[in-house]
Automatic annotation (TrEMBL):
Domain NAD-dependent epimerase/dehydratase residues, every copy: 9-246
Gene3D superfamilies linked to this entry: NAD(P)-binding Rossmann-like Domain
Protein name according to UniProt: Flavanone 4-reductase
GO molecular function: dihydroflavanol 4-reductase activity; flavanone 4-reductase activity
Protein family per UniProt: Belongs to the NAD(P)-dependent epimerase/dehydratase family. Dihydroflavonol-4-reductase subfamily.
Length: 337
């Protein structure tokens, strides 16, 4: 007798991370219910509709509102796995409470309470948290004095200073509290800055905007610690499928790629584009975070960071999100990627 495909709910299916997760779940034969803010917004949903057309009957899209109690009740009913990824991801806001904290915190409370009502079918809830819930601005040293781990919680960010970070702390703490209260099996995934291939042609996301800046050689500050969107999605799937998975899982390279190394790699791969030179030894490339728990317990292997940038830029150009300058064109300033 054929087994029915497991049903997975992905909240915020339109997002950068969630779209890749939907794609991977479909490829593994799951039946996916994706939640979106509005089905009418074709710019946001058309890439998902295309994924669904390739796997007829395996993807349905449902409207649900993070701020509305009970909004997720019907979509999670009968599901085996709930991947809660929907949360605002931007750094600047003039009204952090309404724009960042409320959707993150109330959204998590609502999704988890719908999960509790569907406890008979729900095997596990997987929450997309963030390294932002582990530390803020490296302001407090790691507990082990060496590298940040899953043991660390960001206790320094506030609504006025790093409100996005604060939203992720509050949301993850809410999830752990509600899961404990209702006996739900919860695992959280804590990605660092996520980059890599995009599926949607929208350009309003923070990750996509950053990668577009790298592709177009505009000046950027710092060398962020990154991870690959394909690895982040895979970590979510592994966290659902591995029976012994538990607790929090950081997904991140341990040290940043230097801007010098990145610009060299991009110049080699894209000789047709004007990729600015970045002088040697300008950046701190020391190890900062421990990703070994996901490696050991989930078997997660990270994509080399250079490939993440290259594969991401290829999709940004294909989807006409980025327009890199041709090589030989005059460049403004030096890019510090
Ligand atoms: N990208 C990163 O570097 C990174 C790193 C660590 C953790 N994360 C986490 O990963 C998750 C997905 O992030 P992403 O990079 O994929 O961001 P994204 O592309 O901006 O996607 C965010 C998703 O959340 C939905 N959303 C945002 N605000 C909402 C609101 N007020 N009401 C309802 N839905 C809302 C968005 O819906 P619309 O499509 O309708 O806007 C979208 O589906 C978030 O939880 C984020 O905190 C991301």
């Amino acid at each position: 007798m054929a087994h029915a495909a497991p049903v997975a709910v992905v909240t915020g299916a339109t997002g950068f991370v969630a779209s890749e997760l939907v794609k991977q779940l479909l490829a593994k034969g799951y039946t996916v219910r994706g939640t979106v803010r509005s089905l009418q917004n074709k710019d946001k949903v058309q890439h998902l509709e295309r994924l669904g057309q390739a796997m007829p009957g395996h993807l349905t899209l449902h409207e649900a509102d993070l701020l509305k109690e009970g909004s997720f009740d019907s979509v999670v009913r009968g599901a085996s796995y709930i991947f809660h990824t929907a949360s605002p991801f931007f750094i600047e806001s003039s009204n952090a409470q309404a724009d960042l904290i409320d959707p993150a915190l109330k959204g998590t409370a609502n999704v988890l309470s719908s999960a509790a009502k569907a406890k008979d079918s729900v095997k596990r809830v997987i929450l997309t948290s963030s390294v932002a819930a582990v530390h803020g601005e490296y302001a407090a040293p790691p507990k082990n004095g060496h590298l940040y781990t899953e043991e660390d919680w960001n206790e320094t960010s506030t609504i006025d200073n790093q409100p996005y970070h604060r939203s992720k702390v509050l949301a993850e703490q809410e999830a752990w509290k509600t899961a404990k209260q209702h006996g739900l099996d919860l695992v959280t995934i804590l990605p660092n800055f996520v980059l890599g291939p995009v599926l949607s042609s929208r350009a309003d996301g923070t990750s996509v905007g950053f990668l577009k800046g790298v592709a177009e050689g505009t000046a950027l500050q710092g060398t962020p610690l990154i991870c690959d969107v394909r690895d982040v999605a895979r970590a979510h799937v592994l966290a659902a499928e591995e029976p012994s998975a538990s607790g929090r899982y950081i997904v991140s390279h341990r040290a940043p790629l230097t801007a010098t190394a990145l610009s060299k790699a991009l110049q080699e791969r894209f000789p047709q584009y004007a990729i600015p030179e970045v002088p040697e030894q300008q950046y701190d490339a020391s190890e900062k975070i421990d990703n070994s728990k996901a490696e050991k317990e989930l078997g997660l292997q990270l994509t080399p960071a250079v490939n993440t940038f290259i594969d991401g830029i290829v999709t940004l150009v294909q989807l006409e999100i980025a327009q890199p300058l041709p090589s030989g064109a005059p460049q403004e300033g030096t890019a510090a990627v």
